[in-house]
Amino acid sequence: MSPLCFVLMPFGVKKDPPRPDIDFDRVYEDAIEPAIRDAGMEPLRADEERTSGVIHKALFERLLLCDFAVADLTTANPNVFYAFGARHGMKPRTTVAIFGRHLTLPFDVDFLRALPYDIGENNRFGPDEAKALREALASRLKTAREQASVDSPVYQVLQNSRVPELAHLVTDVFRERTQYSEQLKARLAEARQSSTRQEGVARLKSVEGTLGPLDGVESGVLVDLFLSFRAVEAWDEMIRLFEQMPEPLRRTAMVREQYAFALNRRAGKGGNPADRMKALQVLEQVEKELGTNPETHALMGRIYKDLWDEALKAGKALEAKGHLLQAIEAYARGFESDWRDTLPGINAVTLLELEGSPGSLERRDRLRPVVRFAVEQRLRYATGDYWDHATVLELAVLGSDQELAKTKLADALAVVRETWEPRTTARNLDLIRTARLHRGEKVDWLEPLIAALRERAQG
């Protein structure tokens, strides 16, 4: 996907006393829009007409979510200036300011490296002026893509300030960090707790039907709805909602990762096998843009793990082994990119045990204490979520510690959020049971654990 560039500027014809009026739509269409495309980006213009010029949440979401921004400060439009300042408070870089060369701005913009442009005689903005602005702006935007220099005066002063990146918010706590209608939040929570999947899907679709056009809905609402469909395992609805989301939200890493998650799960429920390849492509693009990270690689690992399982059941032993090794490497890379995220770590340890070669078992033994230390640190400073307790449970099973496994099973079952979570753990324990059974080890003590997890997965 090409990066999005959000354009902040006046709309239509605006007065510029004592000079003639300026047609800003012409400036946008003849220079700014083509310059953005020349820089390899997709333009997205703030829709002043729809919002009647009111500063609203959708505007702030786009200011935060869009990769780049261009602000035309000509005529010193107060809404543009306000949004321009807000952007500098949200993003340390990738904001380009432009202004009509004749304009006297309310403050000095030299320190912002603002780009002046000629509007032309009598403010007519002809082909020569359009060509000059197009070339200069395209060059500035290309430089912004290639260099990581800070252009926000806020972040130049507050060098250690944290950037509010929505794309990197942890998926499972996102809905807790967003504030919107408590009534709507409660309706989504109630739908997730429905007695049947069909009822939950119907209730969520009913909520969705009250939202109106999605491009005017707050991002927090859409993400909560998206993850609520995940909670009831409505993979088709997740994929449909993703495809209808506003472009800035759809491009965030977290939303793309969950879209890939839904594609893979749909493929496993008798869907099109091509969904898995599409999911891998989505995740590979996220990795290309953001680098190695635990969430992306854990999802990659799950896809390869599913491909391994399917090839194994089809009797394709060599293909299965290849997918198993791919899954191990994906999980291991995710864990190594951030040791604090134990989910890819425990999966790597488990799959190394299943692979079973001397080299894999040696690597398992090196990695297992690191995963144990990481999860113990997490539980030391917090109560822990389902995956923390499930990780300790799985480590206990791998270490054949039956008493600890029973204790951690109870802890994990007490904090289940979504039914697919215990189903995933049950599957992992069953894979360990099968591998050990083939090696002639005693595994009957694992069966009650697996049964309890599967029972909880039924809701």
Q: What features would you describe in this structure?
A:
It is a single chain. Strand 5 (68-72), helix 4 (78-90) and strand 6 form a beta-alpha-beta unit. It is elongated and about 90 Å long. It has a five-stranded parallel β-sheet, sandwiched between helices. A two-stranded antiparallel sheet has the order 2-3. Residues 48-55 and 161-179 have low confidence and may be disordered. The protein is α/β, with parallel strands linked by helices and 459 residues long. It is built from 22 helices and seven strands. It has helices spanning 24-38, 48-51, 57-65, 78-90, 127-146, 153-157, 174-177, 182-192, 197-209, 219-231, 235-244, 247-250, 253-268, 274-290, 294-313, 317-337, 342-355, 358-381, 386-398, 402-414, 420-438, 446-457; strands spanning 4-8, 13-16, 19-23, 42-45, 68-72, 95-100, 115-117. The longest helix is centred in the C-terminal third of the chain and has 24 residues, at 358-381.
Break the fold down into its secondary structure elements and pairings.
Layout: E1 4-8, E2 13-16, E3 19-23, H1 24-38, E4 42-45, H2 48-51, H3 57-65, E5 68-72, H4 78-90, E6 95-100, E7 115-117, H5 127-146, H6 153-157, H7 174-177, H8 182-192, H9 197-209, H10 219-231, H11 235-244, H12 247-250, H13 253-268, H14 274-290, H15 294-313, H16 317-337, H17 342-355, H18 358-381, H19 386-398, H20 402-414, H21 420-438, H22 446-457
